[in-house]
Amino acid sequence: GQPARVSGAMSAMRRNRTGVQLAVVGGGALLAHLALLLTLPLWLQSGAALLLTGWLPAGLGLALLLPPTERTAIGVGERLLYIIGTGYGISVTVLLGLSYLPGPIARWMAFAAFDLLLLGLGVLYWWRTHQPQRSSSVDPITPPMTANQNRWLLVGLVTLAVVGAALRFPGLGYAEFQGDEARAMLRAAEVISGFEGSLFEHRKGPTEILLPAAPYVLIGHINEAAARLPFAIANFAALFGIFLLGWRWFGALAGWVAALLLALDGYLMAFARIVQYQSIVFLTVVLVLLLLQRLVLLARRMSADATVSAVPLASHLSLASFLLATGLLSHYEAILVLLPALLLLWQLWRSDVGLGRLVLAFVPAVVIGGFLLAIFYVPFVRYPTFGNTFEYLAYKRIGEEFAYNNLADYFMRSTLYSSTYAFGLMTLLAVLGLAIRYWRGLGRAGLFASGILIGGVLLSFASPRWLTVGNVDYTWAFYLLALGLGIVLPDSNAGGGERITWLWFGAVMVLSIFFTATPNTHVYNFYFGWALVCGLV
Predict the structure, then answer these.
(1) Closest CA to 35 of 266, 226, 292, 315
(2) Whole-Å CA distances, 17 to 12, 72, 77, 81
(3) Distance (Å, rounded) from C-alpha 17 to C-alpha 14?
């Protein structure tokens, strides 16, 4: 009788907790409606629109996807990051569906769509918590810390939050819409007016159009600060994702250094303050790797400790797939995250989770991600102007030659967007980190390799095309060998993140600088791995 009484008490507690959670979601939805219907500052109404169209349904969706034990083990802060990232995907997907309906997107249609989504998710969540659930235990994977360490951690997080917020949120309406963001806002107005073809004439994903379209249609008008707010929040949240990822791999200090460097980076500050996709890509790719790294750590713990329950593969992979699809709906370059992601999946496979279980867990993940991408990219590819888009991407952006050398342009842009001293510091730390990796992995030969590395980097600053033989520039070969060696050498710590970090930095850098005709500001993609390398050093 005792186990039955305990089970009944746990079920009652779970139902009570569900009632409280649903009441909180309902209250949040009511406040969001009031904020959108009353006359309030537009930036505040934009935040209410994000709450209603993304974060509230994302919170319920995450609760449905993850059993209670897994949600508790993940922790509040990390869960909040997943809710923020998933919320953007939900908002874009629902607006995309509404744009396919005949005629303009009326205000009542947007309210009805998101209210019905919230209601449906709420009913499903209530029903699920009233069903018998198998108990399991998933332990937190964050290492325990002393009281003194916790105090320093709090100081670091507050510092990161203050610096990151101060450089992203104040004065978001500092200037009128310009350039690419003006084009995105014009297309948002066209989509709301019923011209869904505007989405397919855009040469990239629909996120930067549909995210500001949500507050636009719900409020009835919009300004610069309100339209830029979702991108600033995504950029700010991604800093804490980098912090967590660096902490898991190299320790809390390394994660904090990496996040602070990105908080101060000129590219990312600029992208946080415009209506463009980069901040969404930043957030989603970091969260994809964070989820996969979590699975690897749980799998290793299961192999070492027989009392640890099975690894929650399907739920984590499905969430990672949704976030990856959200990134790809923002821009194709989010696909670059597959380089470190595949290495993490390889580590997961080697952790004795079982190939059969891993394959089965991929089925719902592929279905979710595939469906999300198909609803946009299938009509996008079939649209009459796709040929022009493909030609632009294939020939103007990527190019037709075997290799390029964009070092000079890269140096100029980077020192324009960021402090020359900051750029020099990050370069110095990366070279030092690579030299240390050589010494550890190659012994005495590492000293020779380090000398060549330092000489080659210095020559690159003096003359970006220093390795030209005849009329052929081979500078790409130097960086491919130098960074490739850093990728293949074994890890020197137990976290298993060194090789992945060097792959994320090195491979994406070589692809961007030497195998892309016009990378321009797209070089920001290797800054995430680069900052983690600096944190490690």
Answers:
(1) 226
(2) 9, 13, 19, 22
(3) 5
Asked whether residue 224 carries a pLDDT value surpassing 70, the answer given is yes
- Please state, in angstroms and as integers, the Cα–Cα distance from residue 161 to each residue in 164, 167, 519, following that order: 5, 10, 30
User: What average pLDDT score do residues 105-120 get?
Assistant: 94
Q: In the structure encoding, which two tokens stand for residue 102, read together? A: 């005949």
Measured CA to CA, the distance from residue 326 to residue 341 in angstroms comes to: 16
The tokens for 81 are 């990051």
Nearest to residue 283, comparing CAs of 505, 83, 44?
83
* Model confidence pLDDT, tens digit, residues 431-452: 999 999 999 989 889 999 999 9
pLDDT tens-digit readout, 489-519: 988 776 678 999 999 999 999 999 999 999 9
- Alpha-carbon distances, residue 137 vs 73, 237, 307, 370 (angstroms): 9, 28, 9, 31
Tokens 């130098």 -> residue: 482
Q: Map tokens 């209410």 to a residue.
A: 48
The token pair at 378 is 């299938």
Q: Which residues contact 329 (CB under 8 A, 6 or more apart)?
A: 89, 92, 205, 206, 207, 372, 373, 376
Task: State the CB neighbour count (10 A cutoff) for residue 169.
Answer: 18
pLDDT digits (tens, 9 = 90+) for 294-338: 998 888 877 665 545 567 888 899 999 999 999 999 999 999 999
268 vs 28, 47, 282, 494, CA distance in Å?
Answer: 31, 21, 9, 31
pTM score, two decimals? 0.92
What torsion do the CA atoms of 360, 363, 364, 367 make, to the nearest 10 degrees?
Answer: 180
Q: DSSP states of 476-502 as a string?
A: HHHHHHHHHHHHHSPPSSTT--HHHHH
User: For the chain, what percentages of helix, strand and coil (3-state, to nearest 5) are there?
Assistant: 80, 0, 20
The answer to whether 357 and 363 are in contact (CB under 8 A) is no
Nearest to 100 by CA among 200, 182, 240, 175: 200
